[in-house]
Amino acid sequence: MQSEVTTNNYRLIKSEWLAFLFLATGLLCTKAFKVYSYNDIQSKADQGDPAAQYKLGLIYASGKGVAKDHGEAAKWFIKSAEQGFATAQFHLGFMYDGGIGVAKDRTDAIKWWIKAAEQNNANAQRQLGSCYQFGRGAEQDYLEAYAWYNLAAEKLSTAADNRDELEIKLSSQQIADAQKLARDCQARQFKGCE
Predict the structure, then answer these.
(1) Which one-letter DSSP state was computed for residue 173?
(2) Given 103, 146, 180, 194, which is the most exposed site by the fewest CB atoms within 10 A?
(3) What does each C-alpha distance from 60 to 83, 116, 162 come to in angstroms?
């Protein structure tokens, strides 16, 4: 049993580290954005475009074309996240969780992950599942963890794996209750699920 928990912890820690690596290197920035010059991105960001603000945050986090500056990256992620850009909210959660460019604050990390999860961001939903499963920044609650993993599992196979591995700790009634939590959350369009 202990080796299963260790394996689960390692898998979660490994996937969280990979998310940090993607954030730090800017590898996620190429998928959702057309290629613009730094000046174009800066101009759009200054005009309040949340996608450009997010992209600028990735540029500063990775140091591609500019000096790496996590504080400046956080500044732009915050601007984007405050406008409701879910991917920025998800990444900002990692910055608060790890104290990268901002003061380490798990409460703020969870706040941003909840905001992203409410927009059906599967990565944030999976991350919340991890927080509830291991009691990191939230009270340990396997039912909540299972429900968040279940929501994310539609888009992320890693979340499905996390959910399935958690089943060994739950009774069939608890699984049914957690699945109902997930269905209710979907019915409310992911609002008020935490």
Answers:
(1) H
(2) 103
(3) 19, 21, 32
What pLDDT shows up at residue 181? 87
Nearest to 33 by CA among 19, 51, 21: 51
pLDDT classification of 2: cutoffs 50, 70, 90 = very low
Residue with the two structure tokens 């703020």: 108
What does the DSSP assignment read for 39-102? HHHHHHHHTT-HHHHHHHHHHHHHTSSS---HHHHHHHHHHHHHTT-HHHHHHHHHHHHHTSSS
The two tokens of residue 80 are 């984007």
For residue 112, give every residue at least 6 positions away whose Cβ sits within 8 Å of its Cβ, in sequence order, or none. Answer: 81, 89, 90, 92, 93, 96, 124
Residue 21 has pLDDT above 60, yes or no: no
Sequence letter at residue 139? E
CA distance 13 to 7: 10
Q: Which residues have CB under 8 Å from 188's CB, separation 6+?
A: none
Q: Does the structure show a pLDDT above 80 at 71?
A: yes
- State how far the Cα of 154 lies from the Cα of 168, in Å rounded to an integer: 20
Helix (H) or strand (E) holding 115: helix 106-117
